[in-house]
Model the fold of this input.
Amino acid sequence: MEILDGKLVSQAIKDKLKIKLSEPGHQDSRPPHLAAILVGNDGASETYVASKIKNCAEVGFKSSLIRLEADCTEEKLVSEIEKLNKNEDVDGILVQLPLPKHINEEKIINLINPAKDVDGFHPVSTGRMVQGLSTFIPATPYGIMLMLEHYKIDTSGKHAVVIGRSNIVGRPISILLSLNTNPGNCTVTVCHSRTKNLKEICLQADIIVAALGKPGFLTADMVKENSIVIDVGITRVPDSNKKSGFAIKGDVDFSNVAPKCSYITPVPGGVGLMTIAALLMNTYNAYTQRLKINN
Done:
């Protein structure tokens, strides 16, 4: 069993980005610029945004954070996005999700300029991904693919089972694994809360991506020997023994599942770190595209 180390792989990606920014052609230009909008003060969202800003600084990117009150109007958020769309010094825009219930999330995502859609949620980005065209891929699925690539894991012809069908993780990773790429070329089964015989389906899988947000959901009796298990779950579970008052748990019962696996991601220290690295990659790619257009 080998641990797929998100800390190691994400650092390798960040080191590559630092090198790219030091190459001729970049030294005399402004750095890549990621702008984030945070509505409200949700604890998990605060943590995610702070990590994104910290990692931008680490690789030499510029970052901006626009904070809006939880009760801000939808019109105010729309106005801020329109300003960023027009700002030539901003390469990537992300609106931290989830948004307050009074704001139409779909409308907000659709407002972002597809050329700056580093979260990869815009319908244009999704459509291009489905067709296998160059585009911004949602950061978590992209991070998973980068991790598989780093470890040179052969996925061709394997049966991948994805548990979860969200537009952020489940659906895009199912598409990416099925594309004629490397990693890719999998036969993919997408499962969800209405799936019957889920255990039997998982026992047929060479690769399982658990992305449903239920701590410890995937147990050892659902996994066959030598499987590859990717745990996307990241749930705060109350824990009085922790200084923070909570522990971070994945969707996989790690201690019991890990001995059966050829590869497995831990939580924390796995996919979460890769999500940030993939976001940086998307921002860099948006930046280089803007440089080409402006030159």
